[in-house]
């Protein structure tokens, strides 16, 4: 699974399209189990499929994360309220150290 970066809006639109051969248009490599690994993403999760479940017009895939890589210097592309938001929300901290002391829940 690839978590797209804020500057990858065109890629998000490609994946949302009805183009039957989306991956043929992309530069990517294949992971150990054949899943596409996209370059320039915020994060990549390599997962093992555990189960699937129907959900309206889609299927929900549940996986066990086997490996994870991220680039904390990149901002995520967020889909919220039917819109793509490029970059962090207004007022969001950019790193854990910017958020102040951690709460202990008490």
Describe this structure in words.
The chain is built from one helix and seven strands; from the N terminus they run βαββββββ. The chain has 106 residues and is mainly beta. The relative contact order is 0.21. A hairpin with a 5-residue loop joins strand 2 (28-30) and strand 3. A three-stranded antiparallel beta sheet has the order 1-4-5, with no helix packed on it. The chain has a two-stranded antiparallel ribbon with strand order 2-3.
Largest sheet: 3 strands, antiparallel
Total beta-strand segments: 7
Strand fraction equals: 35-45%
> For the CA atoms, what is the radius of gyration?
16 Å
Spatial strand order of the main sheet:
1-4-5
The third-level CATH topology is Pnp Oxidase, Chain A
CATH architecture, please?
Roll
Overall mean confidence score, pLDDT? 80
Q: Which CATH class?
A: Mainly Beta
Distance separating the two termini: 35 Å
Pick out the low-confidence regions: 95-106
Write a concise keyword list for the protein shown above.
106 residues, mainly beta, Pnp Oxidase, Chain A, 3-stranded antiparallel beta sheet, two-stranded antiparallel ribbon, 1 helix, 7 strands, 8% helix, globular, disordered C terminus
């Amino acid at each position: 699974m690839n978590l797209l970066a804020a500057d990858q809006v065109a890629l998000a639109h490609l994946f949302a399209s009805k183009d039957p051969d989306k991956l043929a248009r992309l530069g990517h490599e294949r992971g150990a189990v054949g899943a596409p690994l996209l370059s320039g993403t915020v994060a990549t999760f390599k997962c093992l499929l555990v189960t699937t479940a129907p959900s309206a017009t889609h299927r929900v895939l549940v996986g066990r994360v086997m490996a994870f890589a991220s680039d904390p210097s990149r901002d995520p592309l967020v889909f919220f309220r039917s819109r793509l938001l490029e970059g962090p929300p207004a007022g969001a901290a950019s790193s854990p150290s910017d958020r102040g002391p951690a709460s202990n829940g008490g």
